[in-house]
Write a structure and sequence with these properties.
The protein is an alpha/beta fold. The protein has a domain of 130 residues: GMP Synthetase, Chain A, domain 3, CATH 3.30.300. It contains 22 helices and 30 strands. The relative contact order is 0.11. It binds 5'-O-[(S)-ethoxy(hydroxy)phosphoryl]adenosine. The site of 5'-O-[(S)-ethoxy(hydroxy)phosphoryl]adenosine has 21 residues, from helix 13, strand 20, strand 24 and strand 25.
C-alpha cells in the first residue's frame, strides 16, 4: 500500500448547523443527550442493544441462541436464528395491513410511472421465486442479475432472498469483461437481464452484453430476459437463444403466486457484491442474512428518521451497495415507500430530479456529492423552478462532500430547512457507520460527524496507536457490527489480509480521516489504489488490465486525478509495443489510437471506467524494485495540462530518477 507517513488535513470548517427545531421535535432521536445515552448503551453492551432492536422490529422463524459469536476476525450474529429478509421486507407489511401501500414507486426515463403495492410486490416476488426454482435454482446457488433500474431488478433480488439463493448484481453501466469476471468468480449459471434499459434517451444493450459474455464464458446456462424496451429490441439485436434464453413474462405467466419463504439461517449468504480493491480482480464481498437485515433497517430508520408516510428516494443504482441497502432492503424492511428512477439525472434536462421530487412528493432524498456538484455547475435555476416543499431530509454518500457543495445542497435543495446526513460507509460495512442522527447531531459541512450506535471508530497510525484529535491517520473500526462483511467469496485468506492485517485486530478498509475535538470524523480519502470516480468505486488495476489487453499496449498505469465534478477522473499512462509505436508518429494516428483505447476500456468495463486522459510514454517511472511510482504519475496527471496534441512520447525516466529518493 502506498501511504504517506503523515497525513495532513487542510480543511478547516467552522460553520455548524443545529437540527431544525421542528424536525427534532418529531424525530426518533431528539437531542444530543438522547443520542449520547443510546450510543453509550450500544457500546457498553452491544449484544443487549442489538438483541433488543432485533426482537422488536423483525419476524424470526426461530430466535437466536447467542447474539454474537466473535472469533476475530470472524463474526456470527444472531447465531442459531432463522429468518427471511424477503419476508421481512414484503410479507410482514402485508400481514400488518399495509398490503395496499405503495412499496415501489418507479419512474422510467421515458416518463412511465408504475406503483407496486406491498401486496403486488409479494405476488411478483413469489412468482419470480417460483420461476427461479423451476429453472433449477436451489438454496445457495448464486444468481447473477444485470438489469436497469426497474422494479423487476428489485423483484429479482427479493425473489433470490426468498429462496435463499444469493444474488450477485452487476451494475448495468459495466460491460462485457466485468460480467465474465464476476460470473466466473461467483460460479453462477443463471443470469437475469433485460433487453435493454434507457439512459439519456438511448438503449443500453444489456442483453447484447450478456450474449457476448456468454460467448466467452460457458458457465452461463440460463438467461432470463425482462422486456423493458420491447419491439425495438426484439426485431433487431440480441434475439433469444434457444434452450438458453427465456422471456421473463412467459415464465411468470406459468407460475403460481404462492411461495413460502425459505427459513434461512442467520448466517446464510444473502448476496455477493463485487467491488474493487488494490488488486486486479474484483472481490466478491459476502454478506449474510440476519445481521445485514437488522443493521440496514436500523441505520435507515434512525439516520433517515423514517416514518410511515415517507417517500424515500435514494438515487444510487442497485448495482452498488448503496442501492442494495437503501433502495431495497433497509427501506422496505421499514415498510416505507422506495422510489426507483431508471435514467440519467439530466434527461431530458437538468430539471429531471427536481421535477421528480415535486411530482412524487419525495420526503427524503439521498444522493452522491458528484451529482450535487454537477447540478451546482448548471445553476440553481433548475431546482428553483420546482416546489420542493415535500422534502424533509437530505443525504449524501459515496465520497467526501466539499463544503461548497454541502452549502448549495442545504440552501438550494433543502431551502435551508432540511437536515443533511453525510453518511460514511463501504460495500464491506453493509450499512452506514458514521453519520449525523438528523434530529440530534449539529452538522458541519464536510464531515460525516459521529458514529452510529454500536460502532467504535478510531483514527490510528500504522502501528495501531490511536491518534489525538485533529491528527490525520487510518480510519479503523474496533468492534464487530451486525452488517459487516463476513468474507471475500472463495478467498478467506484475502479477507484476513485485506481488512484485518494492516493494523492488528481492527477493521481497516482503506480510508484516511481525522477526528476533531467534538469527536466528528472528517474523511480525507482513500489511501490504497481505489479511485472514486463520480462516487463509483474502481480499482486502478482493473482498468490497467483492461488497457493492457489491447494488442498495441505493452504496459499501463492508471491513477486518479482530482476532478471538479466527478471527484476524481482516471488518467492512464501507456507504453506501446515496439511494432505499434509507429501508430502515434502522426498527430492523427495518436488521436485515433487514444480514442481506440478509450473505446476499448468502455467496451471491456463500461463507460464509468473510461479514462479522461490517456498519455503515451516511453517508459513508466518505476522504483528500483519495479514498483510503478503512482504518486509521481498522479502529480504529473494532476498538474500538467493534457498533452493531447504532442506527437513525441513523454519520457519520465529522468523524473523517475529524481523522485526515487522520496518514494
Ligand atoms: C468513500 C459506498 C467520504 C470512502 C457506500 C469509502 C465516503 C468508499 C463517504 C466506499 C462519505 C463513502 N464521505 N467518503 N460520506 N461515503 N465514501 O464501497 O472512500 O462504493 O471507503 O461504498 O467510498 O465505497 P463503496
Amino acid at each position: 500500500m502506498s501511504q504517506p507517513e503523515k497525513i495532513e488535513s487542510l480543511l478547516k470548517e467552522e460553520r455548524s448547523f443545529p437540527p431544525p427545531a421542528k424536525f427534532a421535535a418529531a424525530a426518533h432521536v431528539r437531542s444530543m443527550d438522547e443520542y449520547e445515552a443510546l450510543y453509550k448503551q450500544s457500546i457498553e453492551d452491544p449484544c443487549a442493544f442489538w438483541a433488543s432492536v432485533a426482537e422488536q422490529n423483525f419476524r424470526w422463524f426461530r430466535m437466536w441462541d447467542r447474539t454474537l459469536d466473535w472469533q476475530l476476525p470472524h463474526a456470527r450474529w444472531f447465531v442459531g436464528a432463522q429468518t427471511n429478509l424477503c419476508f421481512n421486507c414484503v410479507d410482514r407489511h402485508v400481514e400488518r395491513g399495509l398490503g395496499d401501500k405503495t412499496a415501489i414507486l418507479f419512474e422510467g426515463e421515458p416518463g412511465d410511472v408504475r406503483r407496486l403495492s406491498f401486496r403486488e410486490l409479494q405476488t411478483e416476488v413469489c412468482k419470480f421465486a417460483n420461476v427461479l426454482k423451476s429453472l433449477g435454482v436451489k438454496k445457495g446457488d448464486r444468481v447473477t442479475i444485470y438489469m436497469p433500474m426497474t422494479p423487476e431488478l428489485a423483484i429479482a433480488c427479493l425473489a433470490c432472498a426468498r429462496i435463499g439463493a444469493p444474488h450477485s448484481v452487476i451494475f448495468g453501466g459495466f460491460s462485457v469483461q466485468a460480467i465474465v469476471d464476476r460470473v466466473e468468480d461467483a460460479q453462477s449459471h443463471v443470469v437475469i437481464t433485460s433487453d435493454g434499459g434507457w439512459r439519456r434517451g438511448k438503449v443500453v444493450p444489456l442483453k447484447e452484453n450478456v450474449d457476448q459474455a456468454a460467448a466467452q464464458c460457458a458457465l452461463i446456462k440460463t438467461v432470463v430476459v425482462h422486456r423493458r424496451i420491447g419491439e425495438r429490441m426484439e426485431s433487431g439485436a440480441a434475439p433469444l437463444v434457444d434452450g438458453r434464453d427465456h422471456w421473463w413474462h412467459e415464465l411468470m405467466a406459468a407460475e403460481s403466486a404462492e411461495c413460502p419463504p425459505e427459513k434461512c439461517d442467520a448466517e446464510d449468504m444473502l448476496f455477493l457484491l463485487y467491488t474493487s480493491g488494490s488488486t486486479g480482480k474484483p472481490k466478491g464481498i459476502l454478506h449474510t442474512t440476519a445481521g445485514y437485515m437488522v443493521y440496514t433497517a436500523t441505520t435507515a430508520k434512525y439516520i433517515f428518521d423514517l416514518k410511515p408516510d415517507d417517500i424515500f428516494w435514494c438515487t444510487a443504482d442497485i448495482g452498488w451497495i448503496t442501492g442494495h441497502s437503501y433502495v431495497i432492503y433497509g427501506i422496505l424492511a421499514n415498510g416505507v415507500t422506495t422510489v426507483m428512477y431508471e435514467g440519467a439525472p439530466n434527461h431530458p434536462d437538468w430539471e429531471r430530479f427536481w421535477a421528480l421530487i415535486e411530482r412524487h412528493k419525495v420526503t427524503k432524498f439521498y444522493t452522491a456529492p458528484t451529482a450535487i456538484r454537477a447540478f451546482m455547475r448548471e445553476g440553481r435555476q433548475h431546482a428553483d423552478k420546482h416546489d420542493l416543499s415535500s422534502l424533509k431530509l437530505l443525504g449524501t454518500v459515496g465520497e467526501p462532500i466539499n463544503p461548497e457543495a454541502w452549502m448549495w445542497y442545504h440552501e438550494v435543495v433543502g431551502r435551508g430547512r432540511c437536515p443533511i446526513v453525510d453518511t460514511w460507509w463501504q460495500t464491506e460495512t453493509g450499512g452506514i457507520l458514521i453519520s449525523p442522527i438528523p434530529g440530534a447531531t449539529p452538522t458541519k459541512p464536510g464531515t460525516a460527524t459521529r458514529p452510529f450506535f454500536g460502532i467504535e471508530p478510531a483514527v490510528m497510525s500504522k502501528d495501531g496507536t490511536v491518534l489525538p484529535p485533529n491528527a490525520g491517520g487510518l480510519l479503523c473500526i474496533k468492534k464487530p457490527w451486525p452488517g459487516m462483511l463476513r468474507g471475500i467469496w472463495r478467498d478467506p485468506e484475502r479477507f484476513v489480509r485485506q481488512y484485518w492485517s494492516e493494523i492488528d485486530d481492527v477493521y481497516f478498509a482503506g480510508d484516511s480521516a481525522r477526528m476533531d475535538a467534538d469527536g466528528y470524523f472528517w474523511i480525507m480519502g482513500r489511501v490504497d489504489d481505489v479511485i472514486k470516480v463520480s462516487g463509483h468505486r474502481l480499482g486502478t488495476m482493473e482498468v490497467e488490465s483492461a488497457i493492457v489487453a489491447h494488442p498495441a499496449v505493452a504496459e499501463a498505469a492508471v491513477v486518479g486525478v482530482p476532478h471538479e465534478i466527478k471527484g476524481n477522473a482516471i488518467a492512464a499512462f501507456v507504453t506501446l509495443t515496439a511494432d505499434r509505436i509507429g501508430d502515434i508518429a502522426s498527430h492523427d494516428g495518436l488521436a485515433k489510437l487514444r480514442e481506440e483505447l478509450m473505446q476499448h476500456v468502455t467496451h471491456a468495463l463500461g463507460a464509468v471506467a473510461r479514462p479522461d486522459q490517456i498519455r503515451f510514454t516511453q517508459s513508466l517511472p518505476k522504483t528500483r524494485s519495479g514498483k510503478i511510482m503512482r504518486r509521481l504519475l498522479r502529480e504529473i496527471a494532476g498538474g500538467g495540462q493534457v498533452k493531447g496534441d504532442t506527437t513525441t512520447l513523454e519520457d519520465f525516466s529522468v523524473l523517475a530518477k529524481l523522485a526515487e529518493k522520496d518514494e
